[in-house]
Structures are given as C-alpha cells and as structure tokens.
Automatic annotation (TrEMBL):
<dbReference type="GO" id="GO:0006508">
    <property type="term" value="P:proteolysis"/>
</dbReference>
<dbReference type="GO" id="GO:0005615">
    <property type="term" value="C:extracellular space"/>
</dbReference>
<dbReference type="InterPro" id="IPR043504">
    <property type="entry name" value="Peptidase_S1_PA_chymotrypsin"/>
</dbReference>
<dbReference type="InterPro" id="IPR018114">
    <property type="entry name" value="TRYPSIN_HIS"/>
</dbReference>
<keyword id="KW-0720">Serine protease</keyword>
<feature type="domain" description="Peptidase S1">
    <location>
        <begin position="24"/>
        <end position="256"/>
    </location>
</feature>
<dbReference type="InterPro" id="IPR050850">
    <property type="entry name" value="Peptidase_S1_Elastase_sf"/>
</dbReference>
<feature type="signal peptide">
    <location>
        <begin position="1"/>
        <end position="16"/>
    </location>
</feature>
<keyword id="KW-0106">Calcium</keyword>
<keyword id="KW-0732">Signal</keyword>
<dbReference type="InterPro" id="IPR009003">
    <property type="entry name" value="Peptidase_S1_PA"/>
</dbReference>
<dbReference type="InterPro" id="IPR001314">
    <property type="entry name" value="Peptidase_S1A"/>
</dbReference>
<keyword id="KW-1015">Disulfide bond</keyword>
<dbReference type="GO" id="GO:0046872">
    <property type="term" value="F:metal ion binding"/>
</dbReference>
<keyword id="KW-0964">Secreted</keyword>
<keyword id="KW-0479">Metal-binding</keyword>
<protein>
    <recommendedName>
        <fullName>pancreatic elastase</fullName>
        <ecNumber>3.4.21.36</ecNumber>
    </recommendedName>
</protein>
Amino acid sequence: MLRIFYLTTFAALVTAEPQLQSRVVGGEVAKPNFWPWQASLQALEGSHYRHICGGVLIKKQWVLTAAHCFDNDNVSLVVLGDHDLTKIEGREQLHKVKRTYIHPAWDKNQGNDIALILLSTEATLNSYVKVATLPPSDQMPSAKWTCYITGWGRTQTFGPLSDVLKQAILPIVDTPLCRSSYQPEGISVKDNMICAGGGVNYGCIGDSGGPLNCLVGTNYVVHGLTSFGSFASYIKKPTVFTRVSAFIPWVQCVIKGKRQLCFECLNL
C-alpha cells in the first residue's frame, strides 16, 4: 500500500545554535530567532489559531511556502518572529493573509509544490524578523553544503507538534539515489526537488512549507521548501523538498504582478 504523506503539520528536528558538524541525532531546539525568516502559517480553529505549516519571509509583504498547505486548511494568519508558539514573547508579528498564489502546475503526482502568500501588511524588519536569501535561478544543491531543516512539526512519528522551533542537519542526498529509494513505492522524485536526510533526522508532520537552510559560503540560503516523505519506514528515506532555485522566475513574476503575461511563471 502506497503511504506517501505531505508534511502539512510538520516540525523540524533541531540544534541549539548551528555548528558545522556532520550529524545531529534527532535534532534539537533552535536558538530563539536564529532563523529570522521562519514563519508559522496558522488557521482559525474555534476561537484559537492552530499552526498548520511553516513558511519563509522573502520580502516585507511576501511569504513562500508549500502549495499543499492550502489543500485542506484555510490558512488566514502568518506569524513572524516567533519561537515558542505557546507563549507571547514580545517579538512576534501577526499578519493576516491578503491573498494566496498557488503554482498553476501544482499536483500531488507531478510536484510543483510551491505557493506565495501576500500579507495584508508589511513586516517590520529587525533583529528577529528578516527576509531570507534565495538562490540564483537553477542553482543546484551541493553535498558539500551544511543544510538545516527548521520547523514546529512533530519530533516523533506519532507525537504532538513541537511548541518551540527546532532544527536538524540534513545532508543533501543525490537525486538518483533518492529516486531509487522512492521508486518501490511508485513515487516520482522530480528534477525540481531536493532530497536531504534519510537517517535519524527528517521532516515530519507540521514542517511543510518551511525552509531547508543551506550554508553557502558564509550565508544561509533557503534552497528548499519541505514537501513530503514516505510514511512507510520514512526514517530510512530522505525528506523531499521543493527546489526553490527552479521556481525563481515564477516567484518573480507573481511578485511583479505579471502572472498572466510571463510564460516563465508556469515553470513547466
């Protein structure tokens, strides 16, 4: 039975402060606001908001995330500058969602798992809230990079979401090797995806749409958006991310308001 799952309620496995080490077993809690572009996408449930997915602030009024985050939930609030979702720490910024833009070719069987959120108000940039650095168009990931997944998702297979932001080192996995690991389940890993991890560290429910932060030179660059994993022994399989560099033309087109004019927006 095919048991692929999109990580819609996903939270990463973490480290106190990123260190250049080869392995973080299970991950650990991130240093508060070390990843200042990290966003929490939330939906109203009764009288309270509930964390649904992660996201990435890329401009003052724009957040990048995964398309599948909108399949079953009405995401209406984006929280920036947060660390512990259960506490008011004074650094949070709450922004209502003005509009969402789902990639026109998004399909669970074909990929293109990416979306943009236009916030109703601009974020205030400071020490706790900053815009992410995105890669050049079509830059491919390197196994030499140190990459961290971050999020508030589950820290074990059937456990609850994490209250605090977590992080874990996920080594980049060669695409052909990743394809071969998913092939028995009939799952297609596309060229516009990135695979990382596959050992004790991995993405889980609640981390969807959150970043894969890769240290390129001296700066962290958001190269991936958490997309899916395999529920059938997925600890042994890499987590699959949308490769951000493959969608830079589409992102630029949407932000510039040229969605109907720019063929690159389709990125097919």
